[in-house]
Amino acid sequence: MPQQPKPGRPPRDRRPVFDGIWWRARTGSPWRDVPERCGP
Fold it and tell me: Per the database record, which ranges form the Insertion element IS402-like domain (predicted)?
């Protein structure tokens, strides 16, 4: 049987998101001050 294509989006690297969460927890700053490199 032929393989079926995987549905949905391809996986993304979530490390920038977690880095943003850790940065915010460490500094105690509001979300709007999280660096751009951490993603939207």
Answer: 2-40
